[in-house]
C-alpha cells in the first residue's frame, strides 16, 4: 500500500491557491485519471478556470462555494461535485478562518474520436 | 454542475459499514472509474476485502488505520492511499467517538489482455 500524505506533498502556488498534483507520485501515472489536492485560503477563491477535462471533486476540509456562470452552489464538507467541459468555474472559500481543501480527479471525456466504437457503453 | 450530497445519498450496509456507491447517479456512469463513500463507525472496521480493482482512497473525515497483510498504516485526514490487486485490506476506525468517512475510486488495472497494444504507456 502506498500512502500519499498531504502534509508532505510537493505543492505549488497558482495565485493564492496551493496545488499538489499526484503526477509527483510515479505510482499514479497509470491511473485512468489525473488527481490533485488544492487548498484555498479563508475568504479567497480559485482563479476562474475552464478546461476540456471533466473534473470530479470532493470537499475534504471545509465547504466549497462553486460558481458556474454566475450561479453559486454550496458543496458541504464530504460532498462531491462534477464539472463538465462546458462549465467555467470559480471555487470560493467563504470561511473567515479555515482553509478549504479539495480533492479532484480529472480526465478527458470519451468522444467519438477516442472511442473504438461509438456506442454509449 | 452536479452536486453529490453525502447526507442524502442512498446508502446500504455492508456489515456495520455504510456504503454509498456513485452508480446511483447516472451522470457518473461514463466515468473511467467507479466511486463510493463508505463510513465506518467509531472503534469498528470494514470487513476484510481483496479484489482485482485498484482502489484509491482519501480520508475525508477522521483518520484511517489500514491493515494490509498484518501491517497497519495510519492515513491522516485529508491524505490518500492506494491498494493494488494483490493487497487484501481491512480499514479500522480507531476513534472512540467519531465516524470515519472514506471516499474511494476503483478501476480494473490495464493488463496485456485489455490493452490494444502491450507497450507501457
Automatic annotation (TrEMBL), chains A, B:
Entries under Pfam families matching the protein: Cupin_2 (PF07883)
Keywords for this protein: Dioxygenase, Oxidoreductase
Domain Cupin type-2: 37-103
Stretch forming the signal peptide: none
InterPro entries (alphabetical): Cupin_2, RmlC-like_jellyroll, RmlC_Cupin_sf
GO MF term list: dioxygenase activity
Domain of life: Bacteria
Protein's name in the database: Quercetin dioxygenase-like cupin family protein
Lineage: Bacteria, Bacillati, Actinomycetota, Actinomycetes, Micromonosporales
Amino acid at each position: 500500500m502506498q500512502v500519499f500524505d498531504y502534509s508532505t506533498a510537493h505543492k505549488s502556488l497558482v495565485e493564492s491557491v496551493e496545488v499538489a498534483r499526484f503526477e509527483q507520485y510515479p505510482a499514479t501515472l497509470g491511473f485512468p485519471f489525473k488527481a490533485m489536492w488544492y487548498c484555498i485560503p479563508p475568504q479567497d477563491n480559485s482563479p476562474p478556470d475552464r478546461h476540456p477535462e471533466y473534473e470530479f471533486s470532493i470537499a475534504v476540509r471545509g465547504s466549497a462555494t462553486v460558481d458556474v456562470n454566475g450561479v453559486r452552489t454550496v458543496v458541504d464538507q464530504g460532498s462531491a461535485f462534477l464539472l463538465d467541459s462546458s462549465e467555467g468555474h470559480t471555487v470560493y472559500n467563504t470561511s473567515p478562518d479555515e482553509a478549504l481543501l479539495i480533492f479532484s480527479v480529472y480526465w478527458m471525456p470519451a468522444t467519438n474520436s477516442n472511442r473504438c466504437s461509438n456506442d454509449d457503453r
